[in-house]
Specification:
alpha/beta, five-stranded parallel sheet, 20 helices, about 50% helix, about 10% strand, elongated
């Protein structure tokens, strides 16, 4: 790989360090070095580097500039919400704070070019200066003149400066309709499976051998490579699941070479992790705690109905919770549970002779649709309009046999339903939406 980074303007030792820091990107780094040329020579005015996310564009560029000690300004187009911030950051990086203060409060492109020319004439560039624009696709939403000016900035400021645009989209979607200076294009392809294996294996755990960690990465890529080729996401998944992979080894049940048993222990855990690829619903620590809690509850969950594993939409879960409360709570207790200013009411004041038996032992009672919706709007944590979507979800719950319609089909004005799920099932559903249903059940007061 070091052969790809041979360049007459730099020492072999530096180029060797570059090769070590840029695995599987030697070809692209070599092409960039060729484009840059000798440090004191004029480089091409603008370079357009494109490729998918996590393909090494920013990393290669930053390592080259830092290791070769080239003057550069790195500008994030996400952080620079205005052109004034962009101009300030460039002048600050090259000429210091005094130069940035020369810009007016709302600088135009001509102001930036004028200040830059003044400063470069006072301190001319001994080496090529580089302006690296990250997330450059956001420049398309800026002033129409900004991109054409940046592409030919070297000509306008009469200085040895090169603008490098890093983006995820192709040049054809960048090119202005009015035309502009054409930059040099350099494509960064996605990492192949073998390259991902090589890169991720470099993060080996110090307590285990390199071969053992490489076999773990091979298993991980076998599961996730078909759905995710993002290096950052794969690196996150590798760090997150490695402790689970090592569990049988730490307990002394298997050896490092017994990859088949390690895989069988790891397979169900990876399938669960596959549901959260690219999502950051919870932190890594919370994910590990959730997995530990699930393992403890596995014994209790095995005896539950198969309905427990049915995936429901968000509002359908609250509709089912409201139906359960309507079935097992007396109607006159709704005021106590769902009104803020209901006053102090003791349970003994509610009890009648026929209510001393638990409602859960008597079974679910029918309730009208308007009561179901009233409870639903009370327990859901956001404002929901009574749209057709809500009513269609009630029909879906009936189709899934989670609710039972007890009124006749021709009774359209006030249909009645009964909840057909168990206490264990509704508790499992409530946990997924962080709702403590026990606090709203009359039997548990």
């Amino acid at each position: 790989m070091s052969a790809l980074l041979q360049h007459p303007g730099y020492e072999e030792e530096r180029l060797q360090r570059l090769s070590e820091q840029l695995p599987c990107r030697g070809l692209q780094a070599g092409m960039l070095l060729s484009l840059m040329g000798q440090p004191h020579q004029y480089s091409y005015p603008s370079v357009f580097i494109y490729g998918h996310r996590s393909s090494g564009k920013s990393h290669v560029m930053q390592v080259l500039l830092k290791e070769l000690e080239l003057p550069h300004a790195t500008v994030s187009c996400v952080e620079c919400v205005s052109v004034a911030l962009l101009f300030e950051q460039v002048l600050l990086s090259f000429f210091g704070g005094d130069a940035a203060s020369l810009l007016p409060r709302s600088p135009s492109l001509s102001d930036f070019v004028r200040v830059y020319r003044q400063q470069s004439s006072q301190s001319p560039a001994k080496q090529t200066r580089y302006i690296v624009m990250e997330k450059a696709e956001l420049l398309r939403d800026a002033d129409a003149n900004l991109l054409p000016v940046l592409l030919r900035l070297q000509e306008l400021v009469e200085d040895n400066v090169t603008v490098v645009l890093l983006t995820e989209i192709i040049w054809d979607k960048f090119r202005p309709n009015t035309g502009c200076f054409e930059p040099l294009l350099l494509h960064f392809p996605d990492y192949s499976k073998g390259e991902l294996q090589q890169i991720l294996s470099r993060d080996k755990h110090p307590s285990y051998s390199a071969e053992f960690y490489s076999s773990y990465i091979n298993i991980l890529l076998g599961v996730f490579y078909s759905v995710c080729r993002d290096l950052r996401e794969l690196r996150h998944l590798a760090a997150l699941n490695f402790s689970k992979f090592c569990e049988p080894l730490a307990e002394g049940k298997v050896k490092e070479t017994d990859t088949h048993k390690l895989w069988r222990n790891m397979e169900p855990h990876l399938k669960k992790a596959m549901q959260t690829v690219y999502l950051r619903e919870v932190s890594s620590l919370q994910w590990e705690q959730m997995q530990q809690m699930e393992e403890k509850e596995n014994g209790a969950m095995r005896g539950l109905s198969a309905h427990t594993h049915v995936e429901l939409p968000y509002y359908s879960k609250f509709l089912l919770i409201a139906a359960y409360l309507a079935s097992y709570n007396p109607a006159r207790t709704d005021k106590r549970f769902f009104l803020k200013h209901h006053g102090k009411i003791k349970k003994t004041n509610f009890l009648k002779k026929n209510e001393k038996t638990s409602n859960h032992l008597l079974g679910p009672k029918p309730f009208p649709l308007d009561r179901l919706l009233a409870i639903f709007y009370s327990v859901v944590d956001s404002r929901v309009a009574p749209t057709a979507s809500i009513f269609s979800q009630i029909s879906s719950l009936v189709t899934l046999q989670l609710l039972t319609q007890v009124s006749h089909d021709d009774q359209l004005d006030a249909p009645k339903y009964k909840c057909a799920v168990s206490m264990d099932f509704i508790c499992a559903i409530s946990r997924t939406v962080n709702f403590e249903i026990v606090n709203y059940l009359y039997d548990f007061l």
